[in-house]
Write a structure and sequence with these properties.
Number of strands: 12
CATH topology of the largest domain: Rossmann fold
Strand content: 15-25%
Distance between the termini: 9 Å
CATH class of the largest domain: Alpha Beta
Radius of gyration: 21 Å
Order of helices and strands: EHEHEHEHEHEHEEHEHEHEEH
């Protein structure tokens, strides 16, 4: 049996930067209350490991301003507070609120999301009607909604689109299936399309699409809530028979087809170390 780890293997650059920076912050400020405002990334194992630090706290919810308000109410000395904003992006009004209360914070918004936000801003200045293709329940989509409100249109299906002749500007969630983004071009007339898919995700997707009718087993190591990991899994499942989704917190091996070669993909939210631990646990069942 040959194990083939499909590169890039492990965290994407944005997630790696956020996690490494957070570890440095935890060491640098041992006396601070470090509050993670929603998941730092879509990997509950990573977030659980971070919470082993006694001065780190995790909060989840759509209304981030309310979360921060509740924390402020319970804290007499605000100088002890340090807020960590996730890679998926945060409403500028929330950041403004943190600043107004003179609290320390770190914003780990992914560079691709910042790039997309700037593209949307420029399109609005140029009087385009902006459309964002993204899942309604995804934190990245929520960030875009909070940032621009009624200035743009969020859609996931053709029925969500408005019918008019105004010039349109279309962008997409950074973890979107590239093939889906190509398909939605058929839904529009008089539109400019800006590909805002993360380069890491697109590279993985293309590798997944090139792996067709393989007689070998294929593993995707991903949290079930990681959109880019699930996209990979579905792409591979479409063209291959033996495809398996393994969580980064795998405790027991699952039954998979024993083949001469096994391909392994990771989502952008899974580290090399986590993936290797998962593979060690899984391959005991193949020995």
């Amino acid at each position: 049996m040959v194990l083939k780890k499909v590169k890039p293997f492990g965290y994407c650059k944005g997630v790696n930067f956020a996690i490494q920076s957070l570890h440095k912050i935890i060491k640098q400020f041992p006396n601070k209350q470090i509050h993670l405002i929603n998941l730092i990334t879509h990997n509950r194992k990573t977030n659980k490991e971070l919470l082993k630090n006694k001065n780190v706290f995790f909060h989840e919810g759509k209304d981030r301003k309310k979360i921060i308000e509740n924390i402020l109410k319970k804290t007499k000395n605000r100088k002890k507070l340090l807020f960590i904003l996730p890679a998926h992006g945060t409403d500028p009004q929330v950041i403004k609120f943190i600043k107004e209360n003179k609290c320390q914070y770190y914003d780990f918004t992914c560079g691709y999301i910042k790039f997309m936000i700037n593209k949307i801003k420029n399109a609005l200045v140029e009087n385009y009607e902006v459309y964002f293709y993204g899942k309604n329940n995804h934190p990245e989509t929520q960030c875009i909604k909070d940032t621009f409100g009624k200035k743009l249109n969020v859609f996931w299906q053709k029925k969500d689109l408005k019918s008019n002749n105004h010039k349109k500007f279309v962008v997409c969630q950074t973890t979107t299936n590239y093939q889906d983004f190509l398909q939605i071009k058929k839904w529009f007339v008089n539109a400019v399309f800006e590909d805002t898919i993360c380069g890491f995700c697109k590279q993985k997707q293309k590798q997944a699409c090139n792996l067709k009718n393989s007689k070998n087993s294929i593993i995707v190591i991903s949290d079930a809530k990681s959109n880019n990991g699930i996209v990979l899994f579905k792409l591979l499942k479409t063209n291959n028979k033996y495809v398996y989704l393994l969580p980064p917190n795998l405790t027991k091996p699952i039954k998979i087809k024993k083949t001469n070669k096994i391909y392994v993909f990771t989502s952008s939210s899974v580290s090399k170390q986590q993936a290797n631990i998962v593979l060690e646990k899984q391959f005991k069942s193949l020995a």
